[in-house]
Give the backbone structure.
Amino acid sequence: MTSAAASPKPLHPGLNLGPAHGKANMEAEPVVFGFWVFLMSDLVTFAMFFAVYATSVHATAGGPGNAAITDLTSIAIQTGALLISSLLFGLGTIAMKYDEGRAKVAGFLAAALAFGLVFLGFEIRDFMHAAEIGAVPMRSGYLSSYWALVGLHGLHVTVGSIIILAMIAQIAIFGLRSDVKSRILRLGLYWHFLDVIWVGIITVVFLPGAVA
Amino acid sequence: MNETFLLGRLSLADIEPLKLFQNPDISTAIGSLASWVVIVGAIAVVALLTVKGWWKPLFTEWLNTTDHKKIGIMYLTFAGVMFIRGVLEGVVMRAHLMTSYEGGFLTSEHFAELFSTHGTIMIFFVLMPALIGLMNLLVPLQIGARDVAFPKLNQISLGFTAVGGVLIMLSLVVGGFETGGWTAYPPYTGAAFQPGPGPDYWVWAIGLSGVGSLLTGLNFAVTIYKMRCPGMTFMRMPLFVWTALCTSILLIFALPPLTAVTLMQALDRYLDFHFFTNDLGGNMMNYANMFWMFGHPEVYILILPAFGIYSEISQTYSGKMLYGYTSLVLATMAIAVLSFTVWLHHFFTMGQSAAINAAFGVATMLIAIPTGVKVYVWIATLWRGRVRLRTPIVYLAGFIVFFVIGGYTGVILANPTINFAVHNSQFVVAHFHNVLLPGTLFAILAGIYTWFPKFFGFRLDETWSLRTAYLFVIGFAVTFLPLYVLGLMGYPRRSPAFDDPTFIPYVIVSFLGAVMLLGALTSLIVSFVVSVRKRDELAVPGGDPWDGWTLEWATPAPVPEWNFAVIPEVHSRHAFGIEKMSGNAFSFEESEIEAIEMPAGSYIGLAIAVFGTLLGFALVFWIWWLAALSLLVMVGYGIALGFLPNRPIIVPAEEVARVHKSWADAALGERRTRREDETLPTNRGYAAPIAGAHA
Amino acid sequence: MSTDASTQESIKAEHRRELRSYYWGFAGAVVLTAFSFLAAIWQPFGPFVAYCGLGVFAVAQILVHFRCFLHIDLSSQKREDLQLLLFTAMIIFIMVAGTVWILGSLMDRMM
């Protein structure tokens, strides 16, 4: 495809590969821009779940509220795991940009995936604990919105993890081909974007429970 | 309810066609007959494909294509099929209402099902796909691109849209649809009141097709942002591209609330969550609020591209430059942004404070300003132009007259105090049909007339097209204008019967109008059949039957797969018009033509359509194994795409040059058609430019 | 040769700069998260200030993420992305604030 409107110096959100990467760098611009549009749209979806959560805070119908289900230590661990994972992914994309070898890139991705799984493990543990004390989503409007919002983020992390796995496989099979590079750039945007959502979740869902 | 592993909760009692043989009452018989129409229609299509030997081309040229033009045609075909069903349902409803003074031949349940499917189909599966189809056909050509930014994604969008349509068609045959209107408000559509498959059909048809619409928005926003040809600055884009851009932005930001609301409704219905239930802290007002955060921008998703089409045809058929291009662009953007600030006017009576109602009422009235600007611009464009009374101008005239009425009643409804009196009455029904028919439907029909020759290589028969247009315009007026009066007389909407005999004359007139609309639909189909038969006489190989000025006319008809032999470079808003005037339109350097890289075909869209439908159907009937399997196939295919080789098709330069040369040579030899002769067989698509039109 | 060497040098400098950006972003995110947790747990100035603090730290942290991880900045080259982000923020503000306003009013009036 000729992209006639492409500027001589393509630039997009996330790490830019730079002119040394030639085709991969040129083709990244519209593709990453499109992915950025998707993320913005996804952000609005999350905003809806946040809005419903905000309107349901008091709709506990006599069931367990926020304080009963929030374990701040676990949340702190989850936050740490997600941040470390994000940093590792970032370092992986930098390794890709400066041609430090596919093993190193795949290694960083695998490490990022490992911390993502740590996050998911603790999140599942929290959900199981909530279910044990009867804080299931069927119990009240509040718990429905809680499970849906936190669960939607968890689902995104799960999907991201599967795609990281697929990308590691692609690096192993194809090496750092230009389309593989472009996909890793987009996956990076997605992975960092989930952190931003998580900041919203701890601020709106978990920490206010501790304040109250 | 009996559930089996293999078939979930599907049982013989859900199979509508069987009901015809079980001594049904008239209402059930009509439903059952309708399901037979679907079955016979499907068999007829299969038979036609077999007899004509079209199976192979169907799979190798259409279902695997990533060509934006073919995808656009498939969108329009899909919309056309759904349109037939939507119109028939409308006529059945009007017939019922004519006889419904203390009765009527349909049961209340059946009537409710009819208006629910009618609304859902007309909005999601007729108007939206038809407009998206036109966007597909026109946007890449008008901005001088070879395709959209993501051709494969475009195919995936079509696949998701098809899922929704097929599911709704299936609901006619198996299980029946919901009865809560196209908005499907809970708790009435919740598991407690409608445990059956109907609301689940709605959830998955809307939810899955919504994904397709969202991806379309993304695709076109990126296409318009990043794929414009050299010289095509924003302020040189044709008006239709502008409206397509604003529509794409609306799709990107308005579909997420719909996705969220269908997801939550699904969680409520399947997993016993309490988002919108009556008990345990559920709040159905959250549903209304979120649904209309999508629903109002949706109204503008339906009308903005129509405005774009009217802008193009008012210019083309009056041979006069669009008056006030800049103000049209600004008005379009203003409408797009304002449309996010008015959603509450769909539920003024829900019980929030007067201050909130006032704020949203004022915001709603503000939209009338940019819309008014637009109407003046179209009138000013026609004013003292050399208007030719072709079919699109009939639609445009009908639009200007009736849309203004629809707009005024919109401002009336925007006043919360009046709204309290007339909400939920036939007045509202009159209002939205009044904006959607003259606004969107007429624009689509006018657009099809105008651009049909571009993609099929022959014009539509003028006589039958004119008949269709007059029937649609008059039929609309006769059907829907009486409903304003009925609404003010106190006739509630969605009511299956009435007990006030003074309504009777109005419902009779309205039914006669519906018969005219049915005639219009028939005439539309006849116009296609007649045109196909006369295609040699109507052929326009030159590709420019109406003296168009924008880039899509600078190509042969039908347009080659690669659109442009050489990516054009534009220097003005009327790139092709000015080239024709200066006589450079068909000159080209053979050395400039290079081999063209086109994306390879793919079956991902087809896979999405098939397995998405299976997924939706399985979820509706709780056939969990099939749902899991379908989801797995879709996700697996998606991941596998990254591993499959993706080799583009190279079209050799000689082939491109040959096609281009034969077109350009013919253009130099043919006699140019003057505008007064454009409906004659001598119009071969080489237009004589109108002197002084670009001043 | 000398231009090659200077290119090499500038690539190295960019490499260092980009690594630094990630490390700084990570450090900033950790510190701001810690502030948020401390504000919620200790509440040195009462619950109201704690809530405000949570909001401020969250916005600051989101800005850090956008700047250091997603590389959105104010340079004119990336204007389209920034415009899109700001437009999204506006739409989200309209939708969320509107929802809270409307549903809040409904809840008040049902009490």
Q: What stands out?
A: Chain B has a mean pLDDT of 94. The longest strand of chain B covers residues 596-598.
